[in-house]
UniProtKB/TrEMBL annotation:
Native species: Sunxiuqinia dokdonensis
Tree of life domain: Bacteria
Boundaries of every FAD-binding FR-type domain copy: 1-97
Gene3D superfamilies documented for this protein: Nucleotide-binding domain of ferredoxin-NADP reductase (FNR) module, Translation factors
GO MF annotation: an example: oxidoreductase activity
Record lineage: Bacteria, Pseudomonadati, Bacteroidota, Bacteroidia, Marinilabiliales
Protein name: FAD-binding FR-type domain-containing protein
Pfam families according to UniProt: FAD_binding_6, NAD_binding_1
Length: 216
C-alpha cells in the first residue's frame, strides 16, 4: 500500500477534545467512504481514520477526537502547521454502490466521529436521497452539521436535551420504524452497530442492505 508524506495545512478545533486536521492532498486519490492510516513519519506509529473531506477538495481532511491516554491522537493534536505526516492508503469498502448513487432511499447512522464518511458522501455526491441519524453526547458534537441538508439530518443527544431527539440513536430507531426498502449505512462503535443492526433486521431490512464500518 502506497505511503507518502503530506504537509499539515491547518488544525481546526471543533470542541475541546475534537479537531480537524487538514493536509495538502497532492495526488492522493480515494472513493468517498474510504479511510487512510495516518502515521508518524519518524516512528511509523499510526492509526486508521475515515476521510472527512470530499473527493473534489484540494486538501485531505480527517476528524480526530483526542482520547484520554491515546498517545497518537495527542501527537496529531500537537502537530504544527508545515510539519509532515505520513498517509497510507486509501483502504476500505464502505462506499456507495450504483443503486445508492442513483436515488435509492439511504439511511446514514453514525455515532460521534463516525459521521466522517457520511460527511464525505454528501460533500462528494450532491443528489443523494439520504437521511442522517447522528448520535452524540452533547449538541456541540454535531460535527460538520452545516454540510447536511437540515431537513435530512437528525441529531440524537444522550446527555442533554439540546438536539432533535433526547436519547441514543437506537432509542430513536425503536420508536420510529425504518422503511424496509432502505439501504442503511452504519458507522460508529461496535455496540451501536450490533444493536442497530438487530433493530433494522427486525424491521425486515435484508442483511445485504445493512453496510457497516466499525470505528472503534
Amino acid at each position: 500500500m502506497e505511503t507518502q508524506k503530506h504537509q499539515v495545512l491547518e488544525l481546526e478545533q471543533l470542541t475541546p477534545e475534537t479537531f480537524l486536521i487538514h493536509l495538502d492532498r497532492q495526488n492522493f486519490s480515494f472513493k468517498p467512504g474510504q479511510y487512510a492510516i495516518l502515521r508518524n513519519p519518524e516512528t511509523g506509529e499510526g492509526r486508521e481514520y475515515s476521510i472527512y473531506s470530499s473527493d473534489q477538495e484540494n486538501r485531505l481532511s480527517f476528524l480526530v477526537r483526542e482520547i484520554k491516554d491515546g498517545e497518537f491522537s495527542r501527537y496529531l493534536r500537537h502537530l504544527k502547521v508545515g510539519s509532515q505526516l505520513a498517509v497510507e492508503g486509501p483502504r476500505g469498502f464502505f462506499i456507495l454502490d450504483e443503486k445508492s448513487l442513483n436515488g435509492h432511499p439511504l439511511l446514514f447512522i453514525a455515532t460521534g466521529t463516525g459521521i466522517s464518511p457520511f460527511h464525505s458522501f454528501v460533500q462528494s455526491y450532491r443528489n443523494l436521497n439520504y437521511q442522517v441519524l447522528h448520535g452524540v453526547h452533547f449538541a456541540d458534537e454535531a460535527y460538520g452539521i452545516a454540510a447536511f441538508d437540515p431537513d435530512r439530518y437528525l441529531l440524537c443527544t444522550s446527555r442533554e436535551e439540546k438536539g432533535d431527539y433526547f436519547g441514543r440513536v437506537s432509542y430513536y430507531l425503536k420508536a420510529h420504524k425504518v422503511d424496509e426498502n432502505s439501504i442503511c449505512y452504519l458507522c460508529g462503535n461496535s455496540d451501536m452497530i450490533e444493536e442497530v443492526t438487530n433493530i433494522l433486521e427486525g424491521y425486515g431490512i435484508s442483511p445485504e442492505n445493512i453496510r457497516t464500518e466499525v470505528f472503534f
